[in-house]
Specification:
This protein is an alpha+beta fold. It has five domains: about 60 residues, Arc Repressor Mutant, subunit A; about 55 residues; about 180 residues, Nucleotidyltransferase, domain 5, CATH 3.30.420; about 70 residues, no CATH class; about 90 residues, no CATH class. About 40% of the residues lie in helices and about 15% in strands. Strand 7 and strand 8 form a beta hairpin. Helix 15 packs across helix 17 and helix 16 packs parallel to helix 18. The longest helix has 17 residues. The chain is elongated, with a radius of gyration of 42 Å.
Length: about 525
């Protein structure tokens, strides 16, 4: 009616139909048709403008032809709610529902009309809402349902890696990364890389209720994991979670997961990777092509839209990278150490805190130990399993002399053995090489030197010469030699050290291993 009233106003001003069509951006034939209808009413344009919309509409538009409602339509509309509920049940199909319907109503709709009316009703229930996203307002992230694999070159084992997809809804600018696993520490690292790729931080980060981020799902106030909250606090963003079983709450990343399948997965489908790094390098190459590709029916790409409208509005990145921190409760043992169970490594604490329960906060590089809110000590994190990190000042006074062993080195023991003799040097060298951790052999070396003080350097040299003739050398063997005065006995011939085995037909020679 607004368009018709505008036509009446312009005609009353003496405008031509062509001019009216140009001003209203309408077709000239459309304007001509309206003008002909208005002229047939035999009323002036000014009189028509004085009518209200209902009166003017009744004059311009003809009454629609009346139609009679089919009884089948009325009956079917009453059955639609029940049919929709039945269609949700497992294994129910429209064909089965139609057959049941025809058994109840033999003269009812045929299968085509049955599906037509049911489909129209279902369409009205599947309406969606379009959201206009603000630039730099949100980042949505989720794991792709399909994983990517790589083959271990050494074992031939196939490893399947989850892929994280991060999207900025306004521009559609996307980041993807393959992770060794979906564990929280790898997810946090990938999110760091995503923000680094974007070059800034959006105001919020939204995901579904993945357990790595959301501790307890709730429609109104979800509870997030401590590490995820630390990450959000470090970057100055806000964590948000979609409603349970409502993927449309993060429709942008859901749709981009499907696009990633078609544009990136499909391109790499025949390539074989041998590491996560190699896989991510290939993903990044295809990702850059994807972000630079023009959007459908547009003369710009996701990167163009992001660079022009979104990047300037992103929050700046922090000066330092986010390092995840974890917290455990540990009790100080009688040996003045607490145990970090993740690595099963032991860290020293001042002996005054023996028996107390302390808080241990650690990251990939440091281990901080707190009593209530007071930090007692900080250690550099060690990943040596069953190892000890000990500070001498943490030990009781009567125990500090044990810490001297930490200052010994391989060179110290070799140099001291060389001052005694060649045989002692060989024995000490062999002792140092027999343990996986060289520190475990230091006490044995000290014991050997103490034997030299007890029995003299000459006897120690002779005992080491006899010990080197065997396949193994340790403190106990050298001590037994000295205690039983075997170092003073004539040295046995080399052939006497081995039991001779006579030739036998069941013994194979070198010719059997050619």
């Amino acid at each position: 009616m607004l368009q018709i009233r505008r036509i009446l106003q312009l005609k009353s001003l003496g405008r031509s139909n062509r001019e009216i069509a140009q001003e209203l951006h309408s077709g000239r034939d459309t304007v001509n048709g309206y003008v002909r209808q208005l002229l047939h009413l035999e009323k002036s344009f000014d009189d028509l403008l004085k009518l209200n919309d209902n009166e003017l509409s009744s004059l311009v538009y003809k009454e629609p032809a009346s139609f009679t409602t089919d009884w089948r339509y009325t009956d079917f509309q009453q059955r639609i709610p029940e049919l929709c509920d039945e269609l949700k049940k497992p294994h129910a199909t429209r064909m089965i529902l139609w057959e049941e319907y025809r058994r109840k109503i033999p003269d009812g709709y045929g299968y085509a009309q049955f599906c037509e009316h049911l489909g129209r009703h279902l369409q009205t229930r599947s309406a969606v809402m379009h959201f206009d996203h603000e630039p730099a307002a949100s980042m949505m992230f989720d794991f792709a349902g399909d994983k990517i694999s790589y083959v271990d070159q050494q074992t031939g084992e196939i490893h399947w890696c989850p892929v994280l997809v991060c999207t900025l809804p306004f521009s559609g600018f996307t980041y993807i990364e393959a992770l060794p696993s979906a564990r929280q520490q790898y997810l946090i690292k990938a999110l760091n890389n995503a923000l680094g790729y974007f070059g800034g931080v959006p105001l919020s980060a939204k995901t579904d209720n993945m357990k790595q981020v959301v501790r307890k799902s709730n429609r109104y106030e979800p509870a997030f994991e401590d590490l995820a909250q630390q990450w959000a606090l470090h970057f100055g963003t806000t964590l948000m979670a979609a409603r349970v079983a409502k993927p449309r709450d993060k429709a942008s990343v859901e749709s981009h997961v499907n696009v990633v399948y078609n544009r990136i997965y499909a391109v790499l489908r025949n390539r074989v990777f041998h590491s996560v790094e190699q896989m991510n390098q290939a993903l990044m190459e295809e990702l850059n092509k994807f972000n630079n590709r023009h959007l459908q029916r547009c003369n710009y790409s996701r990167l163009d839209r992001f660079s022009l409208h979104e990047r300037p509005l992103l929050l700046p990145l922090p000066a330092e990278l986010f390092i995840p921190k974890s917290k455990i409760i540990a009790k100080v043992q009688r040996n003045c150490h607490i145990t970090l169970g993740e690595d099963w490594h032991h860290y020293s604490v001042p002996f005054l805190h023996i028996g107390k329960t302390l808080q241990v906060i650690y990251d990939t590089d440091h281990v901080e130990i707190y009593l209530d809110t007071i930090r007692i000590v900080t250690h550099t994190r060690s990943y040596q399993r069953n190892g000890y990190t000990t500070l001498e000042e943490h030990l009781p006074p009567q125990h500090k002399h044990f810490a001297r062993i930490k200052g010994y080195t391989r060179e110290y023991f070799i140099e001291k053995a060389a001052s005694i003799g060649v045989n002692t040097t060989g024995a000490i060298t062999k002792i140092l090489e027999q343990r996986i951790f060289i520190e475990q052999s230091y006490n044995s070396c000290l014991g050997v030197f103490r034997l030299g003080e007890q029995y003299g350097s000459d006897r120690l040299e002779s005992a080491c010469l006899r010990a080197l003739a065997g396949y193994k050398v340790n403190y106990t063997i050298i001590r037994n030699i000295l205690e039983h005065k075997l170092d003073q006995a004539p040295a046995p011939a080399q052939t006497e050290l081995f039991i001779s085995i006579p030739d036998h037909e069941n013994i194979r020679g070198a010719q059997s291993y050619q």
